[in-house]
Amino acid sequence: MYPSRNKVDKKIFFFARKVCWISFIAFILIIMLFYLVSLLDYGLQFNSKLNVKKTVGNISKPIAEIPPLPKEQWEYIDSLPKRKVEVEPRKQILSQVSYIMQCGAYKTLKQAKARKLDIAFHGIQSNIHKKKDSSLWYCVVLGPYELKRHAERDRHRLQRNKIEPCEIWKARIK
Questions:
Q1: Rounded distance, CA 98 to CA 143, Å?
Q2: Buried/exposed code over 61-79 (b: 16+ C-beta within 10 A; e: otherwise)
Q3: Is residue 85 scored above 90 in pLDDT?
Q4: Average confidence (pLDDT) over 5-33
Q5: Distance of alpha carbon 121 from alpha carbon 94, whole angstroms
Q6: Does the keyword Transmembrane helix apply (predicted)?
């Protein structure tokens, strides 16, 4: 009796897989062999370049001779540590405008006090102002700041501590 068709197909499949793996491994070995041969060839060429000697008459000198390092002749290496630089800072012109920073407007006083407490934990003093337009709002306000730079510094400090949004506004003229 002849073996069933499924058994023959399985044998052919496994044989084909073995042949595929064997050919893959042979291919990798051939590539590695070419790589090693190229390395050896490069090494021989590199060594031959190092041992090349130039012959002039009866005297032979190696070509790859490195000249000695030149001596440094810089003046600033000695003169800089002895010098002192004096800089006069410019006088800062204070503007007539002061700045305030608002860190939220809330419907309830409890929410505003909670935000004020969060800000106080980071060492910044704030106030709560009632604002009545069409309805009552509680605004958490910091400042006044003479320079916008100081307001920006505090805003960045609060942003690093995840207290946002805070907006900087111009206040009344002094």
A1: 9
A2: eeeeeeeeeeeeeeeeeee
A3: no
A4: 81
A5: 30
A6: yes
